[in-house]
Design a protein that fits this description.
By secondary structure, the protein is of the alpha/beta class. It has 12 helices and 11 strands.
Length: about 325
């Protein structure tokens, strides 16, 4: 298993993200992923920088780790031809280190230009066409396309990496996991368990990487961790259509308020004891994930990174749970 560190664009200023990326590499993480949002989930999180600017900084601040988006929606807010150019530039700045994570997005981020919000099936069709456009433009030749959802006219990308970046697709249900197996180079699961991994592997993903994640809150006590998790990530109980169709942070805040006290994620790891972290990572490995990224919720990123380097990483190496860099 390879371990990654999640850079939460919703919680961190851009200069902090660049700094944490460097610290995470130094601490021993093997890859980084960064969210691509226009809005935070709730106003308390307070941030949402333009990810392609931040990635330029990360490219200069790191040397070894692979870096990818988790995830970019290339179907509405930004035309796939522009995403193709942006990803190509970042990949050229990080030779062999950048991958593009993609998904069908949420209304929260993708409605800002005033376009209608399509049904999930339509968004999946749009994503398939977007992936085709990305790969055609990465060939470096002049490209014109008149498709069902997009037009590209006489476009050519001149700044290219030696090899095009891998495309990993996020999925939260069996249909999207199967689609990821068909069109993507890897899979990013947003749902715990092994059902989606099986669906992905049975539909063309047998030899492709599978990314899972865990939300954690390292703190000096479990009670403090619970407090931070509820304050900074109160949206864990919001899922399904509600999760993808609410338009603003205020709508998410109203939904959380209606639910009463914010629920903690069922699979969240809380507090200073390394053992629950190890058990969670072992469980994901057993479910078929060969890459797992850790999302430390809240402002104490330095405390978590120190804990990872000094306690968690040595324990994982002792148990041979992680792949050597």
């Amino acid at each position: 298993m390879e371990l990654g560190y999640f850079l939460s664009s919703e919680e961190q200023r851009p200069e902090k993200q660049v700094n944490f990326a460097s610290q995470a590499e130094e601490a021993g993480f093997q890859f980084l992923v960064i969210s691509d949002h226009f809005h935070p989930w709730v106003s308390q999180q307070g941030q949402s920088p333009f990810v392609w600017s931040v990635l330029g900084g990360i490219a200069q601040a790191t040397e070894r780790v692979r870096v990818g988006t988790a995830v970019t929606c290339p179907i509405m807010r930004i035309h796939p031809a522009v995403i193709a150019q942006a990803a190509s530039t970042v990949a050229a700045m990080m030779p062999g280190r950048f991958f593009l994570g993609i998904g069908t997005g949420e209304y929260l981020n993708e409605h800002v230009l005033g376009h209608p919000w399509p049904d999930t099936n339509i968004r999946q069709e749009m994503l398939v066409e977007a992936v085709f456009i990305l790969r055609e433009l990465w060939k470096g030749e002049e490209f014109t396309h008149y498709g069902a959802y997009y037009t590209v006219s006489d476009a050519r990308i001149y700044t290219l990496p030696e090899e095009p970046p891998a495309i990993y697709m996020a999925a939260s249900g069996p249909k999207s996991a199967a689609l990821a197996g068909e069109i993507a180079d890897g899979f990013i699961s947003t749902t715990p368990g092994n059902e989606l991994v099986k669906e992905f592997k049975e539909n063309g993903g047998a030899d492709k990487p599978c990314f899972g994640s865990i939300k954690v809150c390292w703190a000096k006590s479990v009670e403090k961790a619970k407090e931070v998790m509820r304050q900074w990530w109160p949206v864990s109980a919001i899922s399904g259509r509600l999760h993808s169709d609410l338009p603003t942070p205020k709508h998410f805040e109203d939904a959380v308020e209606l639910m009463g006290k914010p629920e903690l994620p069922e699979d969240a790891i809380l507090g200073p004891d390394a053992q629950p972290y190890i058990q969670a990572l072992q469980s994901l490995q057993d479910d078929g994930y060969d890459h797992v990224y850790i999302h430390q919720v809240g402002p104490d990123q330095e405390g978590f990174l120190q804990f990872f380097q000094q306690e968690l990483l040595p324990a994982l190496e002792e148990k041979s749970l992680i792949k050597e860099a």
